[in-house]
Amino acid sequence: MNVPANLKYSNDHEWCRIEGDVAVIGITDFAQSQLGDIVFVDVPTVGETLAAGEVFGSIEAVKTVSDAFLPVGGEVLEFNAAVDADPSIVNKDAYGEGWLVKVRMSNPAEYDSLLSPADYEKLIG
Fold it and tell me: How far apart are CA 81 and CA 84, in angstroms?
């Protein structure tokens, strides 16, 4: 499994990258591989402020639907239009073009409490 060293991770298999006061969030390579072929991503929370751990959307694969959880709290600023148009991008490039949302963080310290790449690798075994 690909676990980039420049990201932090949640127990729910989301990754997080910081750009100023904005967190870019997506699901991990492990999560997309477990889900299988992703056919639809729904993020109805753009413009809303959510706490860390709250559901910001859902990811639908051929055989299942899974909730997506915010690893850090804040205002959901943007849903990736490319993923909206072609959800399979998440399967092809989970850490790049397949990002899901951008969030203006309410408490940047929450980022520091996320899992390191080494800790996330231990979680997924």
Answer: 5
pTM, 2 dp? 0.96
Would you say residue 36 lies in a domain? yes
Helix (H, G, I), strand (E, B), or coil: what is residue 109? helix
Contact 125, 59 (CB under 8 A): no
Contacts of 2 by beta carbon, 8 Å cutoff, 6+ apart: 29, 94, 95
Encoding tokens for residue 117?
């790449």
Q: What is the pLDDT of residues 27-83, one digit of tens each?
A: 999 999 999 999 999 999 999 999 999 999 999 999 999 999 999 999 999 999 999
The residue range of the domain holding 103 is: 8-107
Q: Which of 8, 13, 1 is nearest to 114 (CA)?
A: 8
Closest by alpha carbon to 26, among 8, 47, 1? 8
**Residue 26 covered by a domain:** yes
Q: Is 24 helix (H, G, I), strand (E, B) or coil?
A: strand
